[in-house]
# Entry
Amino acid sequence: MRALLQRSSGARVRVDGEVVGEIGAGLVILLGVGPHDTEAVADELARKAASLRIFRDEAGRTNRSLLDVGGAALVVSQFTLYADTARGRRPGFTASAPPELAERLYLRFAQALRELGVAVATGRFGAEMAVELVNDGPFTIWLDTEDR
# Structure
């Protein structure tokens, strides 16, 4: 799995002009699923995202996690995180999981965050979405479970 975490002071996702997910302070998590990912990988990545110390403490240092600050997460499915740009000018996406697996693990990731106590909003799997966010910092982290 691949996740792009963006620390945000607020974010929302719209489908056909309708807000389908919205959070205050927390993380926007763009999530890509690979063909060999499992529920265990989704759970592990959720724990990592929730516990990374990337939020400021009272001294302004990044010593607090999403769980520590009581932040929320906006999770948006993003198969394009598996884009292959090695050849030509048109990216290929054959390295991403098939839709059935991707949706199941996307939902599992969001549920794993909820089970950790994080308030979670989501986009709509497979839809054309407009994501709006205020990137706090900016502070952006790339997580790839294949890099373990």
Remarks:
- Residues 43 and 112 are 6 Å apart (CA to CA).
